[in-house]
Amino acid sequence: MNTAVSKVTSANKGAARELVVASNLMLLGYEVYRACGPNGKADLVCRDGQSVLFIEVRQFNINAAGEIKFIIKEHDACDYYAGVLADGSVVYCGREAQHQGREVRSGRNTTLK
């Protein structure tokens, strides 16, 4: 048995998703910074010169109609939720839109405002 291969934990999966989203944001022209600990306002902070956005990378569910529903928490203080689809593309949804039940589904060429 190979003991060098460790089990992939949910923390490992979450960190990998954060890196995918960070890479996507950098491709879109943002400077991206990762949180230093688990108690920050968001997983990622990005800026495009004038705007600073707080991004929370989350798991999501896709309902029968194809709508994306992020798993949100009442105390969330982010501007956008981000998630990674099975094909590697990234989806973003504004926090207010998610709380009001509106969905925003976007691919790699998304501009966040």
Radius of gyration: 15 Å
What is the CATH topology? Trna Endonuclease, Chain: A, domain 1
Helical stretch tally: 2
Tell how many strands the DSSP assignment holds. Answer: 7
Largest sheet: 5 strands, mixed
Global shape: globular
| Average of per-residue pLDDT values | 80
Task: Specify the CATH architecture.
Answer: 3-Layer(aba) Sandwich
Class per helix and strand makeup: alpha+beta
- What are the secondary-structure elements, in order, as H or E? HEEEEEEEH
Strand order in the sheet with the most strands = 1-2-3-6-7
CATH C-level name: Alpha Beta
- Number of structurally distinct domains: 1
List segments where confidence is low: pLDDT < 50 over at least 5 consecutive residues. 101-111
Keywords:
alpha+beta; two-stranded antiparallel ribbon; globular; Trna Endonuclease, Chain: A, domain 1; 5-stranded mixed β-sheet
List the helices and strands and how they pair.
Elements: H1 10-27, E1 31-34, E2 44-47, E3 52-57, E4 60-62, E5 68-70, E6 80-84, E7 90-94, H2 95-99
Parallel strand pairs: 3-6
Antiparallel strand pairs: 1-2, 2-3, 4-5, 6-7
What would you say this structure looks like, in words?
The protein is an alpha+beta fold. The strands form two sheets. A five-stranded mixed sheet has the order 1-2-3-6-7. It has a single domain, classed as Trna Endonuclease, Chain: A, domain 1. The protein has two helices and seven strands; from the N terminus they run αβββββββα. Helices cover 20% and strands 27% of the residues. Mean pLDDT is 80; it is low at 101-111. The protein has helices at 10-27, 95-99; strands at residues 31-34, 44-47, 52-57, 60-62, 68-70, 80-84, 90-94.
